[in-house]
Write a structure and sequence with these properties.
With 245 residues, this protein is α/β, with parallel strands linked by helices. The chain has two domains: 4-142 and 187-244, Vaccinia Virus protein VP39 (Rossmann fold); 150-186, no CATH class. 35% of the residues lie in helices and 19% in strands. The longest helix is centred in the first third of the chain and has 21 residues, at 4-24.
């Protein structure tokens, strides 16, 4: 039996996939391609790509609960794709992956990804020549809700007003945790400037890079404010990017 709330979130994620491709301005031809879905979550993007004539899709995630759901959902509701799609709990930096891929996709994961330079280098090594990574993620840590609610600060940008030691001690006491740093909550903490520098310093060619892509009714406010240099870091909420080997 699949959890109804998990299924609901899976369906919501599928409904958001077209926005992902629209914001990137391109939907690749996946026919006979090998694809790695980095941070696959419930598997919604992997499933949709699996329907597009791919040779194979490998979805990886660090959350065992999500991988278990993805596997069960695939078997129950998308069994015709079982020979094309595989979900695995894998840490990309700690696991030897022997396969090569034509395409890597990652939706709403890089804002949680620590050690990003090393991750990008591993992805570079996993891609075939001419392979591409299609990325879309946010909110960024410096945005008003960039803590994803995990620090329980309640008010916009409040997680930026206090030092890390205070935030860590507070959340440990409040939630009975024993974390040592904010990254232990699954937040990368990278700023917009840091993401730009990391992508620039990687071995990849940057084919596409845009920020603040959204059709939310209020997004135009932040889009306008982000044009001011001193507000850009705090009013940039997402990044969409295509990297090529």
């Amino acid at each position: 039996m699949l959890d109804k709330n998990e299924l609901k979130y899976f369906d919501y994620s599928r409904s958001e996939n077209e926005k992902f491709w629209k914001r990137l301005g391109i939907k690749p031809n996946f026919i006979n391609k090998t694809v790695l879905d980095f941070g696959c979550g419930h598997g919604a993007l992997s499933i949709d790509i699996g329907l597009l004539g791919v040779k194979s899709v490998t979805g990886i995630d660090l959350e065992e609960k999500l991988i278990n759901f993805a596997k069960k959902n695939l078997k129950k509701n998308f069994f015709l794709l079982e020979d094309k799609i595989n979900f695995e709990k894998i840490d990309i930096l700690k696991t030897e992956i022997k396969d090569k891929y034509d395409v890597i996709i990652s939706k709403d994961t890089f804002e949680h990804t620590v050690n990003l330079p090393e991750v990008l280098q591993k992805m570079y090594n996993l891609l075939n020549k001419g392979g591409r990574i299609y990325l879309g993620f946010g909110p960024l840590y410096n945005f008003y809700n960039g803590d994803h609610g995990r620090l329980n600060m309640y008010l916009p940008w409040f997680h930026l007003l206090f030092n890390e030691k205070f935030l860590v001690n507070r959340i440990n006491k409040k939630e009975n945790l024993t974390i040592e740093k904010i990254q232990d909550l699954g937040l990368s903490k990278y700023s917009l400037a840091e993401y730009k520098e990391i992508f620039k310093e990687s071995n990849f060619k940057i084919n596409f890079f845009k920020t603040n892509l959204s059709d939310h009714p209020l997004s135009f406010i932040f889009n306008f404010l982000s044009k001011f240099k001193f507000l850009k870091e705090y009013c940039t909420y997402n990044i969409y990017c295509v990297l090529e080997k």
